[in-house]
Amino acid sequence: MPTTIQSLKTCKEAGEKFTCLTSYDATFSHIVGSAGVEVILVGDSLGMVLQGHDSTLPVTMDHMIYHTEAVKRGNQGALIMADMPFMSYATPEQALENAALLMQAGAHMVKIEGGDWLCETIRMLSERGIPVCAHLGLTPQSVNKLGGYKVQGRESSQADEIIAHAIAQERAGADIILLECVPSSLATRLTKNISAPVIGIGAGSGTDGQVLVIHDLLGITPGRRPKFVKNFMEESGSIDGAIKAYVDAVKSGDFPADEHSFN
Ligand code: KIV
Ligand code: NA
């Protein structure tokens, strides 16, 4: 059965964890979906892991369309979420035009980064049949405003703000919230406060789903490994085995452990 927004909501209501992984091409899309991953993210992280940039800012709509088309061709029933790249949703009108291109390329939903300033855009996309995931916490397209890739929402006023953004976004029509690099307590509280499924990365084990960049899971990303990443290749020895180990670990609650989380 293909994954849908509705099936993810059913998962949340039943208290069952689900998984998400990035893929950027048809082969990985096929492997990832076949291993039981529910959501495939065509992430603008491709600017870093495929293109070698030090941020996601250089990624264009043409890049995202190209990779979304490839992922669609290999898809085995996962829900395909495509990132809208930097400045492709600066206004609601731009967002509508660019989100339509990603949906026509094969995405089932789009992801945009930011707080409640996105509500008008979310409402506009959602009313026109485009499901939206709102990405909160560490938003990599704003790395120059944030002053680096840092944990967000450590102060209680900031934590309250992030939760308020998510509530407003759900009210505007957001179907999924993605939380990156926030304290586990904040992610758990947010997840309980909204009915839309919440996907976490570096957000502890209290969210409804988890996401990782596939290169990180396979341990092939050069440089320092972030705290929230686990190399599943070490214990599995094959790509397929590593992805299945990730799926099992998320479903059983073994991943993320405290050592992968922020407090
Ligand atoms: O682009 C990406 O891979 C992402 C995840 C890190 C959530 O946005
Ligand atoms: Na992204």
Q: Explain this structure to me?
A:
The active site is at 180 (proton acceptor). Its cofactor is Mg(2+). Homodecamer; pentamer of dimers. Its EC number is 2.1.2.11. It comes from Alkalimarinus alittae. The protein has an eight-stranded parallel beta barrel with strand order 1-2-3-4-5-6-7-8, surrounded by eight helices. The model has no long low-confidence stretch (mean pLDDT 98). The termini are far apart. The radius of gyration is 17 Å and the shape is globular. Helix content is 43%, strand content 14%. It contains twelve helices and eight strands. By secondary structure, the chain is an alpha/beta fold. Sodium ion binds at residues 43-45, 56, 83.
Beta-strand share of residues: 5-15%
Q: Can you tell me the residue ranges where pLDDT is under 50 for at least 5 consecutive residues?
A: none
* Overall SS class: alpha/beta
**Main pleated-sheet profile:** 8 strands, parallel, barrel
